[in-house]
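Example 3.2
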Amino acid sequence: ARRTGDTNAAAGAVVAAMQAHTDAAATASYYRVLSELGSDAALDAVRAGTASSDPALQEAAIRALANWQSQGAVPVLLALSEQAPNDSLKAVAYRGLLRLAAEPAPRSAG
């Protein structure tokens, strides 16, 4: 199992590297990496990308959220399924939401 501290630290390193680049393609790649980490820090960084003025970065962020590895993206995807900038991206967000809803809930450690 992943430890939250480990994934948050990894996400911090990825976000720092992402901020050092201004290239949209590189940023989109970082979003994909962050979606694999699935931590809160990663989620914050990718969520910010959904508000980008660059439509390509918006799309990359929404697609990364749709492939998120934890339930943390559910509230963001729910909002995007209604408020994304176009119907295609609303559908991407909705499919991601359905995918996460179909996954079994993690067991409690108790």
